[in-house]
Amino acid sequence: CAGEAIAKAGYTGTVDEVAKSLATLVKNSSEHWCYVGASEYRYIGVGITYESGMWYCDIALTMENHG
To answer: Are 9 and 26 in contact (CB under 8 A)?
Structure first.
């Protein structure tokens, strides 16, 4: 009852531009979007970090609130 998508990209620009680019990357990936966009998940957590010229994004999904 949980899912996760991880994206990595060397985008440049403002934080807002990078966030939009990462969101578009995941949305345009049928392999990721089939569960990230699934209505069965009610809770989502998103983490983004920058390391050595690369942006990393983790999207965690769950049906229940474990927080």
So the answer is: no
Biggest distance spanned by C-alpha atoms of the chain? 35
Distance CA 15, CA 51 (A): 14
Confidence (pTM):
0.75
What tens-digit pLDDT sequence spans the chain (67 residues)?
A: 788 888 888 888 888 898 889 889 888 988 888 888 888 899 999 998 899 989 898 999 999 887 7
**Residues in the chain, overall count:** 67
CB atoms within 10 A of CB 62: 17
> If we measure between CA atoms, which residue out of 61, 60, 57, 62 comes closest to residue 25?
57
